[in-house]
Amino acid sequence: STGSLLRLMHVHVSDHEQMGQLHQLLKYSREAMWHYLNAASSPPLPPKIEKARSQNYELVPEDRPLLLRTFMKEAGTHAIAVGLPEKIHFAFDAERVRLSLAWRGRFLDARGTWFERFTPPAKPLGDGMLQFPPGLLIAPLKAAADPWPTSVPVQFRGYRLDQRGIPTFLYRLANHDIEERITAGDQSQLIRHLTLRHDTDDVRLWIRPLVGKSLSRKGPFQYATASGTTVSVHGLSEPGKLRQQSDTNSDWIMPLPTAATTKIELRYQW
């Protein structure tokens, strides 16, 4: 037994009889371990682990939102997945500081995140995936014709929860403190509530609400993609500009006011 083995390990080397017993126990231990490993190609897991693996770990937001820090293909290794009771869900990439993905229906299964040693990327269980364009939603531009920046220094400062459990993401970009709160609206809409504050107006920021193929204008502050995704912007006075970036891609950009505080609302329907 293990206890006998430990007791024998404290004997003097000169005690030949007990040392012989120790060598015999070690021999039997090696043989027993080898037999266990070769008994099957996949040795059975301990009962408690088997029980944990067999349970259902689907996360279902009912009365309050659910948050899961995990890995996701679309949101990277610093993903913050948020499930809303309205069955509108999204994933925020805390490393690149951007909203990456939204979907409808079922939320996520947490078993891989909680129990797999090499955590596989979590996959949305629902449907109606909406992938947001790579890069930042807001960026500095010197002129409307300038290409959208691919790299802008941005600092993620975490998030805070309101009384309903909805997170507000906090980050700083180009001398601006930005708060982004994401909620579900009527008719399965996703709404991004943005608040920008700054002390100086030496940098002019622009927002890019929509990127895609063949964007069409639905109103002064509303555009749609060929696939049917519609975005409307509320809180700005300038409708912005539709730009053709390539033969197959265009974007809609809008200048942000230089006021000390700016509040914007983006509504996504898909």
Protein architecture, described:
There is one protein chain. The chain has 270 residues and is α+β, with helices and mostly antiparallel strands. 16% of the residues lie in helices and 41% in strands. It has four helices and 19 strands. It has helices at residues 2-8, 16-38, 47-54, 111-115, and strands at 58-59, 66-72, 76-83, 88-93, 98-104, 108-109, 127-131, 138-140, 154-161, 167-173, 176-184, 190-198, 205-212, 216-219, 222-224, 230-234, 241-244, 250-255, 261-269. The protein has an eight-stranded antiparallel beta sheet, with no helix packed on it. The chain has a five-stranded antiparallel beta sheet with strand order 2-3-4-5-7, with no helix packed on it. Strands 8-13-18-17 form a four-stranded antiparallel beta sheet, with no helix packed on it. It is elongated, with a radius of gyration of 28 Å. The mean pLDDT is 86.
Helix percent band = 10-25%
Distance between the termini: 65 Å
Number-wise, the strands total 19
The average pLDDT is: 86
Q: What does the overall shape look like?
A: elongated
Uncertain stretches of 5 or more adjacent residues: none
* Structural class by secondary-structure content: alpha+beta
Major sheet:
8 strands, antiparallel
Radius of gyration, taken over Cα atoms and rounded to an integer in Å: 28 Å
**What is the count of DSSP helices, taking H or I runs of 4+ residues?**
4
The share of residues in extended strands comes to 35-45%
Q: Spatial order of the strands in the main sheet? A: 9-10-11-12-19-16-15-14
